[in-house]
Amino acid sequence: MITQGSAAGDLWAVNPLRDPRDRRIPRVAGPCVLVMFGVTGDLARKKLLPAIYDLANRGLLPPGFSLVGFARRDWENEDFAKLTYDAIKEHARTPFRETVWQQVYEGVRFVQGEFGDDAAFDRLAETVKQLDAERGTGGNCAFYLSIPPKAFPDVVQQLKRSGLSEAGQPHSGIQPWRRVVIEKPFGHDLASAKELNAILDAVFPAHSVFRIDHYLGKETVQNILALRFANTLYEPIWNRGYVDHVQITMAEDIGTGGRAGYYDGIGAARDVIQNHLLQLLALTAMEEPLSFDADSLRAEKEKALSAIRLPADLATGTARGQYAAGWQGGIQVPGFLEEEGIPTDSRTETYAAVRLGVDTRRWAGVPFFLRTGKRLPRRMTEIALMFQRAPHLPFAATDTEELGQNALVIRVQPDEGVTVRFGSKVPGSAMEVRDVNMDFAYGESFTESSPEAYERLLLDVLIGDPPLFPRQEEVELSWRILDPIEEFWAEHTKPEPYQAGSSGPASADALMGTSGRAWRRL
Amino acid sequence: MTIDLTETTTGAIHDALMQARRQVGGAALGMVLTLIIVTDESAQYDSVRAASQAGREHPCRVLGVIIRNPAGRSRLDAEIRVGEGGPGETLLLRMHGPLGQHADSVIAPLVLPDTPVVTWWPGQAPAIPSADPLGALAQRRVTDAAASDKPRQMLTALASGYRPGDTDLSWTRATSWRSLLAATFDQPYGNMTSGTVSAEQHNPSADLIATWLAGRLGIPVAREVSAGPGITEVSFATADGDITLSRPDGRTATLAKPGQAERRVALHRRETTELLAEELRRLDPDEVYAEALARFAVHPVDEGTSA
Ligand SMILES: NC(=O)c1ccc[n+]([C@@H]2O[C@H](COP(=O)([O-])OP(=O)(O)OC[C@H]3O[C@@H](n4cnc5c(N)ncnc54)[C@H](OP(=O)(O)O)[C@@H]3O)[C@@H](O)[C@H]2O)c1
User: Fold this and answer.
1) Chain B residues close to A449, C-beta within 8 Å
2) Domain end (from B103, B138, B168)
3) Which letter does DSSP use for residue A186 in this model?
4) B233 and B294: one domain?
5) At A329, is the pLDDT very low, low, confident or very high (cuts 50, 70, 90)?
6) Contact A17 B181 (CB under 8 A)
7) In testing the pocket of ligand 1, which one of A117, A147, A374 has its CB within 8 Å of the most ligand atoms?
8) For chain B, is the Cβ count within 10 Å smaller at the N or the C terminus?
């Protein structure tokens, strides 16, 4: 969907075997080393290591690609290789092949150490240098910080001190690169986001920082751009003339689980609205970018984010809740305050909803409702455009009693796809109109071809293709939207309890207003 | 479910399909294309199976056309499979007698509306695929020069009959080699003087790779015969020494470059299903194939000659 970035374009200019018309030859990462911090963590084992294997299996990693794990465990190369092997066996998307594993395995190295340990980082630098010489990785290196953000300053400083952050001299005329990949949270408010960025910025130039919002790696999310800008059908009605309001939902059925320590004090709004939901809003509301290159796309998203207006009265325009004990999916579950690791007087919300305006000609007067929560009835992420009712219905009132609003729903997960809801005549002799769905399911039309979000994003990092990564400006704009809400909440409100397994607190329903609008059923 | 219809008509087939769909329930929704397979009784099993497996990625209606007993009486038999081990629908259509000459009259009403049509000849193919009535129904026509008795002559014939939308599985088989070669040249390399592609004697993929390399790199590329399996080596003489990509075992390739340690990379030979899935992924004309094919017709490679 997204076009080649400049990095890939440059390759084509110099490599006689590459030709933009040759669509069979995939974009393959150039030679490089990926250094991963936090390899023992959940994310590394469940997503990152399997994604590396899947990329190798699809032939998208170059010969010589090498993976260095850094962790504090007292391990040898073999132990890390075992962890990688197990992670792949358990979580990889594509079938296991011994030859592909051997290819990955040959490039696997492990470096043991604490983040404060100079000697360990010197060994890391030595390992990367050796790989360059042994495996021809061309001096290129990406650092994946899959670690708690509080460890960033140490690691980034160490990368600088050990000289690892310096790309060094050109290899046979080509300037090597350094890239650093970070995961959310990007701070917990505007000030901390700026602080975090300053730490990175002191060592890595802005264009080499890749911020992962894994939602943007999802095919359905990229499909928003195709749906809107490759078709003639939707754009004419994608505005205030036809759209009554927009609902963006990310519902989770799980509680805080093992992330309680991280979650307390953060809450649903910072964890989900600030990044995922505002990104989805930006993609839904933005104008057509000049092209799908990083600059044009980010520019449009930033314009949309800058146009967001908070509700005049935050008390009625926002809602927050905290799940109480209840039954969820047939299981009796504890309330948030009873979860292990959560203080019994915690004021952290597990449900958040806001009503936002987008002050542009396209969207003036159209409210965007965003909601997210834990322990809701089911796991589901979607964007729903709810259309205005027909201004006049030439039917008897009883004929259209069951007719709702037309809707276009982009289902982000699970069951990725698009649904259009409209009224249709019920078979029979009377003219009775009822809502029906027209459905496009990704799984049916393109079964098995959808790569995991992390495959796509890792490949983009290694290729150096940035459109799918939010830049610091977007992060800051999002905090500017959320900070006043968080401040208001901290001062004036306590999260309203809702039963686990229900669809959220009553105040969330009140926020829809009195105009007959209602949240879509979860 | 499987439905057998003997001495039938396309109308009856259509009705049976509709009924099967209703019983299986929704299984056949969302099909993205029609794949016509022109085959014979001995090859139909493997090619139809490859197609239904590829159908997991691209749910489609598979129409297997099997011509039988041309001297006999005209008769149409159909075997319909819906909701069996995958999305999509499979129809095996056995055409007896003179009807075999008019297969398109059976196929045309069974092609899905509003979606692309692909015709695949897993075995012998017409020299001008687009001129064949079943080829004319399709926007993508897939042949396989490797299945022909004289692959090089087949390539030359395909070149002269080429129309946009033609492709050949021997070109599809070349993709993984071509990707790896392209990745090899992403890194700096010394001035090249010549190249060599080694493979079994009858290997049109190797011939096309040699032709493609010669065209893109502007150097002579020789074709050498090895014991296989498949393609075993591609090498280039450069000012700094040889760049060699060798795959003696059909599974793992070794890349050797001057002044660098050898690197290994998985490069397995792909199943027909995978080839077909690649072929169905994009249905626009393959201009790069057209160029390589055209070049082959002008400078046919052979043992001892260079493309
Ligand atoms: N998992 C998710 O769903 C998710 C979602 C969004 C974002 N993220 C982000 O992704 C990153 C990784 O998440 P995760 O879930 O994998 O976290 P995790 O399971 O807690 O793992 C953290 C990793 O960091 C290492 N680590 C922590 N402190 C260290 C220290 N002082 N010295 C050396 N190593 C240290 C741990 O090593 P030990 O094993 O030695 O402790 C572990 O490998 C974090 O930035 C997180 O915010 C995760």
Assistant:
1) 57, 281
2) B168
3) -
4) yes
5) confident
6) yes
7) A147
8) N
Q: How far is A170 from A140, CA to CA, in rounded Å?
A: 10
Measured between beta carbons, the chain B residues lying within 8 angstroms of A24 are 172, 175, 178-179, 278, 282, 286, 288
CB contact, 8 Å: B71 with chain A?
Answer: no
Residues B173 and B155 in one domain: no
**pLDDT value at A10 more than 60:** no
Identify residue A99 by its one-letter amino acid code: T
Q: Say if the Cβ atoms of B32 and A446 lie within 8 Å.
A: yes
SS3 at position B166: strand
Q: Determine phi and psi for B200, rounding to 5 degrees.
A: -55, 160
Note whether B176 contacts A: Cβ–Cβ < 8 A: yes
Determine whether the interchain pair A25/B175 forms a contact, defined as Cβ–Cβ distance below 8 Å: yes
Domain housing B292: 169-307
For A135, the closest of B175, B263, B278 (CB atoms) is B263
Distance CA A369, CA A384 (A): 10
Residues B139 and B67 in one domain: yes
Mean pLDDT of B71-85: 89
Verify that B115 and B254 share a domain, yes or no: no
Reduced DSSP (H G I as helix, E B as strand, rest coil) percent helix, strand, coil of chain A, to 5: 40, 20, 40
Cα of B25 to nearest chain A Cα, Å: 14
Nearest to A99 among B185, B252, B255 (CB): B252
Q: What is the pLDDT of residues A18-61, one digit of tens each?
A: 999 999 998 888 889 999 999 999 999 999 999 999 999 998 99
Same domain, B111 and B241: no
CA gap A279, A213 in Å, rounded? 9
Ligand 1 centroid to residue A147 C-alpha, Å: 4
Q: Give pLDDT tens digits for A295-327.
A: 999 999 999 999 999 999 999 999 999 999 999
Count, residues in chain A: 522
| DSSP letter string, A290-356 | SSSSHHHHHHHHHHHHHTEE--S-HHHHEEEEEEESEEETTEEE--GGGSTTS-TT----SEEEEEE
A206 to chain B, any CB pair closer than 8 A? The answer is no
Domain shared by B163 and B185, yes or no: no
Vertex A377: Cα angle to A371 and A382 (nearest 5): 45
Q: Give the Å distances, CA to CA, from A374 to A246, A336, A447.
A: 21, 10, 29
Chain B environment of A57 (Cβ under 8 Å):
266
Quick one: pLDDT at residue A147?
Answer: 93
| pLDDT tens-place string over residues A244-291 | 999 999 999 999 877 777 888 899 999 999 999 999 999 999 999 999
Active site residue A276: yes
Contact between A288 and A368 (Cβ < 8 Å):
no
- Residues A180-207: b if buried by 16+ CB within 10 A, e if exposed: bbbbbbbbbbbeebbebbebbeebbeee
Do B156 and B197 lie in a common domain? no
Q: Is B188 on the interface with A (CB under 8 A)?
A: yes
